[in-house]
Amino acid sequence: MAYRYRYAPANYFVYRYLMDKVSLDSYLKEIALDYLKKAIEYGDTAAISELKKSFMICQLFSVLLFSLHLS
User: Fold this and answer.
1) Are the C-beta atoms of residues 63 and 27 closer than 8 Å to each other?
2) Mind listing the pLDDT tens digit for each residue in 9-46?
3) CB of 34 within 8 A of CB of 19?
4) Cα-flanking dihedrals φ and ψ of residue 21, to 5°?
5) Is the whole-model pTM more than 0.70?
6) Distance CA 22, CA 34 (A)
């Protein structure tokens, strides 16, 4: 349904389902990210929020690493 009908929420749900697994190998993680990308391309707001949240976490982590490096 996600690919066939280009239904953005279905793409995001597949991403969430895969990411909620306890352990993901690199292959499944890549598949999950492909579904997230498709959901974002189709304009799913939950997927866009997920991307923003991940981006903010990465920025925060970078700032923390930089400040630790200065110490």
Assistant:
1) no
2) 899 999 999 988 867 788 988 999 999 999 999 999 99
3) no
4) -65, 150
5) yes
6) 19
